[in-house]
Amino acid sequence: MTKPRTRSIRFRLTASYTGVLAMTFALIGVGVWIALEHSIQQTADRELYTRLTEVRRYIDSFSADDLLHLEEEFKEESLLSQSVANIRVSGAQGQWLFRTPSTDRWPSRASDPAKLSMRGSNVTIRVGHELIRVLTAPVKLGVVEIGLSIDGFEEVKRGFLWSLALGSPLLLVLAWLGGYWLSGRALKPVDEISQAASNISVQDLSARLPAANVGDELDRLSRVLNDMLARLESAFHRITEFTADASHELRTPVAVIQTTAELMQARPRTVEEHLKAWGNVTKETERTSHLIADLLTLARADSANLEFEMRPIDLSTIAQAAVDEMRVMAEAKQLELVLDTPKRCPMQGDADALHRVLCILLDNAIKFSLGSAEIRVLLTHPAILKVSDQGAGIAPEDLPLIFERFYRVSKDRSRKTGGAGLGLSIARFIVERHGGKIEVASELGRGSTFTVAFRVSNT
Ligand code: ADP
Question: Of 36, 39, 319, 358, which residue is least crowded by CB atoms under 10 Å?
Fold first, then answer.
């Protein structure tokens, strides 16, 4: 497998903004260059037009005869001193009427006066090393060409080019260094976060990522990750606790079965002793198999694998069936089981799961009640179910905890009564999956009332 080519974000950030800066420099350079060129031409052309006006005015002042002596006239004219340095005049037939020596090296240009507009036309020519802007325009005799050296301006252009060529790389190096430093500073928290995150392991989920509390994006990221870690920590904690509790609960019945079997084998036993031992083994096996079923239910609930079959049901019928089923157990303890339900109590739900809720509540009420007390199941419309007993009751400090997994108020008593502390957490899970709520009100020594309220839709 080839390792993907990686470049740090710091490097990529610096490279991209240095690249953007280089592009900006290039654009500015080209822009300034074009503007400079344009402005040089404009300045030269303005000057050339001024000179053209003077030359025209001068030539216009001659008569036809004077024109034959144009050369001498020109030489004498001091007003045209600037223009004469770079000027040549040709007649209508193309013959030279006048030209200064400097124009000898100018390329010959066939210019028909009839084709030239009054403003003439401008070109830039190179003579040797010198750049000359030449204006060609019609005059009274034929065509005049006036030149103006623009070498001085070229100096400015060359200076600009040099400063751009030397300055830009320097600025780009500075920008690279500055950008590298800035992005390093900006990304430092990311390094700290990844360093801290790499130190977090399953053995220590309590560690948290650093947050500067400045409210920026990285701060928000740290907080979101910390919240996630907190959730993971509590989930992980719950799983380890659950596993430890489950193993503990399973160890007890297995130990009882093993001890019973060993005692039976130690020496010859009577039939009665054997029957008693088998009775114990059966009881513990039943207990274990219930426990395993409960554990399975909760494990499925955690992995969202527990499917409920929601269909129209009658809660009255379910309550009636559960009470009938538990009546034998209640009567064995001389407890009176009273059922008070409307004729029908329709709702959407899973009949088996709701039956289980009622059995858990009734089982607890029977387990924690003492002789000749009453257990009442009251169902009111639309779907509020109450199971009340006159039993042991629950202390206020235990009330918020009894729905937790494996929570038992008194471990000794529960061991005798057979519960592992899973019933109410299963009941709460089923009720909540039905969109309902389960609550308890209790007074120590006077009894408890569990209330289950379902939300009933009219559909
Ligand atoms: P268990 O299987 O041990 O009954 P539960 O989750 O059903 O587990 O109940 C948890 C604990 O809540 C019980 O061990 C008991 O201490 C307390 N409890 C539940 N129902 C009652 C009740 N009706 N009267 C008194 N205590 C109760």
Answer: 39
Q: Give the pLDDT confidence of 209-247 residue by residue, as tens digits.
A: 887 777 888 888 889 999 999 999 988 888 888 888 888
| Ligand 1 binding pocket includes 447 (Cβ within 6 Å) | no
Return d(Cα 426, Cα 432) in angstroms, integer: 10
Residue 278 contacts by C-beta under 8 Å, 6 or more apart in sequence?
none
- Cβ–ligand 1 distance for 421 under 6 Å, the answer yes
Domains identified in the chain and CATH numbers: 5-158 (3.30.450), 217-302 (1.10.287.130), 311-453 (3.30.565.10)
Q: Select from 245, 280, 173, 275 the least CA-distant residue to 421.
A: 245
Determine the Cα–Cα distance for residues 78 and 89; give it in Å rounded to an integer: 17
Contact yes or no for 161/153 (Cβ under 8 A): no
pTM of the predicted model as reported, rounded to 2 decimal places: 0.60
Q: How far apart are the first and last CA of the chain?
A: 58
Q: Is 414 in the pocket of ligand 1 (CB under 6 A)?
A: yes
How far, in Å, from the CA of 417 to the mean position of ligand 1? 10
Q: How far apart are CA 434 and CA 349, in angstroms?
A: 7
369: phi then psi, degrees, rounded to nearest 5: -115, 150
Backbone φ and ψ of 312, nearest 5°: -65, 130
pLDDT tens digits, 76-114: 665 455 555 788 888 877 788 788 888 888 887 766 677
